[in-house]
């Protein structure tokens, strides 16, 4: 079987995912696209033979030739499309964040629970990254002992004009809010957000950088530096300090050059380069699960949990206070084992 995918939102990651779906992965084809910018949709469609351009996301979801839906539009639009996908009974891969508010994510949990089986996978691709997987294995190894601290840095060289300070938390740091839960197998119980002096390279409306401090239910402390105008490259760091040792992501694969009395290597330019294999693996995993009529990967509950923590961090940023975080009831659909 070949899974016929429709893509909603064909900007940067939409185009990158279309490239991998059409040229890298197996068992899948892209049959439809749509975008609020019709010229962009037409441009992208011109590069994908046989693809149909729909005027709206709803039309694409209702198209009988579309077996499964990829949502890669802006975060605040995800809820509408994920709910429509569930209503149509079609598998949905939704880029992070699942939705930008707790209430919106709850509506998705309710809809998927009412449907009775998983249809939604959230694009937390770091769970498929070889380095993060090795880090998780090291943390789980008894040799290190219990994790006590996690130091994370999430550095972007620059961000587009539409990027807002809230996005530093619910679009950028949301990756750490997910990966820390996954790495430690623990929930986040409280958050604070601190602001150092502003980076003068940042747009006037942006709070940049930020330091997020998280407390987990199990007693670990996590600090996350979020810098989105750091210029030098795309740099993702994570170190876990445990009772008897530490484990950290190594510097990115590549070469180290020694010359002229100096040594150095390259820093990835952006997320596409740094996580290229992780995106390939997560989408192949999704395609394989859709083919098998099953579900895999980060669940809508994982998407909900990350957004609830992001909501808490946003409140902490606004108030300057420590904000306790509680996920509330976990619907039974999400208490079953997750495969990735
Ligand atoms: P982008 O701005 O490059 O592209 C978004 C596209 O969605 C644009 O073409 C826009 O016209 C379209 N769009 C907006 N509202 C729409 C609507 N209501 N219906 C249909 N199309 C709509 O943004 P980018 O960077 O591609 O991000 C898109 C999503 O993917 C965001 O949720 C972002 O957080 C996520 N993302 C995830 C990454 C990851 O590492 N997993 C990396 C980059 C983005
Ligand atoms: C973008 O949407 C991503 O998800 C990238 O992984 C992240 O580094 C960037 O800050 C976000 O804007």
A few lines on this structure:
The protein is an alpha/beta fold and 340 residues long.
Structural features, described:
With 340 residues, this protein is of the alpha/beta class. 36% of the residues lie in helices and 22% in strands. The chain has 10 helices and 15 strands. It has helices at 12-23, 38-46, 57-62, 78-87, 102-115, 130-140, 165-184, 271-274, 276-292, 300-319; strands at residues 3-8, 28-34, 52-53, 68-71, 92-94, 120-122, 147-155, 188-194, 210-216, 221-227, 235-242, 245-248, 257-259, 262-264, 323-324. The strands form 3 sheets. The protein has a 7-stranded mixed β-sheet with strand order 12-11-7-10-9-8-15, with helices on one face. Helix 7 (165-184) crosses helix 10. The longest helix has 20 residues, at 165-184. The protein starts with a strand and ends in a 16-residue tail after the last strand.
